Fold:
Amino acid sequence: MKVRYPNTILIICILFLGCKNNDEEMSKRIVGKWNVERDVYAKGSVILNTDQTFKFYEVSHLSETYSTGNWKIKNDTLLLNSKMPTECLFINHFSPYCEDKYIVIKPHIETTIENCEPKNYGKFYTKFSNEKFVFKNDSLTYINENKNCANQLFPYKIFK
Structure:
């Protein structure tokens, strides 16, 4: 005697089709313009486009910086990665720089093109290198993975 479970198969199919991917749902909620405050002297924004590209722009009393690149969602975390421009600029990393207690100076100042000399000293390119953000309460919280900064909090505010 064979036992069949057609109703069970139907219920599983309905549940499978009715469930939405968390990453897709999060993508819809984060697309748009976000205000970015990394310190008291700078104001900026990041625009997350539907085609999974982004544009970042920030201005302070002495300089301006920008970035372009791609974003993706992985395990409910937003990841941003820059694309290097063809223009020669000094690089400003989005992640805070926390020195190791044994490092006295950086070996060299980074530029977007190796060994180039930027013409504009007030314009920078902000590099996003797999920078991670968690979406919570209509804000993006930056996840700093620099081990030298382990015990430091950074007042980055990213909000719509």
Notes: Confidence is low (pLDDT under 50) at residues 8-20. The radius of gyration is 21 Å. The CA atoms of residues 9 and 39 lie 55 Å apart.
